[in-house]
TrEMBL record:
The keyword ATP-binding applies. Residues 38-41 are annotated as: Interaction with substrate tRNA. It is an enzyme of class 2 (transferase). This is tRNA dimethylallyltransferase. It comes from Hyunsoonleella flava. Monomer. It catalyses: adenosine(37) in tRNA + dimethylallyl diphosphate = N(6)-dimethylallyladenosine(37) in tRNA + diphosphate. Catalyzes the transfer of a dimethylallyl group onto the adenine at position 37 in tRNAs that read codons beginning with uridine, leading to the formation of N6-(dimethylallyl)adenosine (i(6)A). Its EC number is 2.5.1.75.
Amino acid sequence: MEQKQKYLITIVGPTAIGKTALSIKLAQHFKTEIISADSRQFYKEMQIGTAAPSQQELSAAKHHFIHHKSITDNYSVGSFEKDALQLLKTLFEKHNTVIMVGGSGLYVDAVVKGLDHFPDIDPSIRKQLNFDLETKGISHLQKQLKALDEKSFNTIAVENPHRIIRALEVSLGTGKPYSSFLNQGKQHRDFKTISIGLTADREIVYHRINQRVDIMLKEGLLDEIKALIPHKDLNALNTVGYKELFKYFEGEWTLDFAISEIKKNTRRFAKRQGTWFRKNENTTWFNYRDDISKIITSIEIEMI
């Protein structure tokens, strides 16, 4: 008996565009479950500042990889790839279609295409780069990466020290640009991916981001972050919305300035998300206000 084709529907797009709401509607239509590929929503201590699905949304469709880890856990994109593929194997035993939603492009690509593989790097290089970050600042590392690998400089999140140090250690340790190791060969997957993207005019995206930040503050973001101050040096908390308010609590910034920085940095993040997701030529893009029936029809045509 021929095995029925399995489909992974991925929903991508900038933050605050409405991916969660769409994923729930699709999960209900296809009578299936949702995998979250939003790396910030993995952590149970980070609920408000990551705009994780509400209890109502979580009960509207079964979700996986939401608040399943602690900020103290060492959980990498490689771990997520392994866990997600294992879960998909189980889910595809009872569903022909599964939904995956998230704004973390690297995590989406890890499941769909597989991760890029890099040679082992001498740990002393990372140690030196961390020392340079402490003593010379991130701008020094950004200039270094631009000189060694301009392609990576233009595509990775250069405000994220973890990402910039990773790109630099590979470039320095191998003598080849970090970008040259990317996309070296697609790994086989036992499912077909249908990629759906949500988009809107930039002004609308920015307005939705500003609104979302205001809502988070009303929901108690300050209290959430205050409780996390003892852990502020953990990598999971080196993220937009948290690092700015740590500066407020440390007395470096006023609250108004910290909030304006969250909005600005989230807008920058949304721009980088757009750059990343548009690299996939197989994504079908819809306006965030398009009727669900239009999106379902498009998906079902791809399934024929």
